[in-house]
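[[Local backbone shapes]]
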Amino acid sequence: MEFPTPLKDATLIRRYKRFLFDATLPDGRTITGSCPNTGSMLGLTAPGSRIWMSEHNSRTRKYKFALELVEADGVVVGINTGMPNKVVEEAIRAGDIEPLAGYSDLKREQKYGKNSRIDILLTGPSQPDTYVEVKNVHFMRQQGLAEFPDSPTSRGAKHLEEMGDMVEAGHRAVMVYLIQRPDCETLKICRDLDSNYGVAFDKAMKRGVEALAVRCHISPREIRFDRLVPVDEPGV
């Protein structure tokens, strides 16, 4: 997925109140922008980091700039949680994610479960309806190891339960963990930061939910599918 307009580079001053960041532009001006990521962003908010921002001129937007990419650990990392669904959809349509290839129809944001919406619903004449939930991943503490989640997520645990319900109803359910950084070779569930999610994940896998981890190629020009990487969890 290519960014619709060229990104602007800047230097991060701080990220705060979850939704905001301050940065210094190359000409020395200081700006405040919106941060499209409500998570902890552990390891990605160091003052002085090089960042890239999208620029918006809509009169309905309070902030002109939105944070998109951060340089960390020597690589460019995507932080916009609105991107994973788009990247995964593009990769599925292109046939890049082999376990999700061959479906004739793809729909976004379909109602299911207990007042929830599935990110992607895949259907076809010879395949079971396949419910695909996409999670954003950019947390790394050990070189090469991506971890999810980076903070407690009761909503994430709820999704796992509902995906298990879909399997027991005769459908297929697949969790796709979209890793928005190019330096990870494996994905692992981060149980020390959210033990409840770990329990919910184990239960979902036993019920037949599948888990895939997708690594991305990231640059200030685009975010796109790179390859599948292993999920290092029992039963996966």
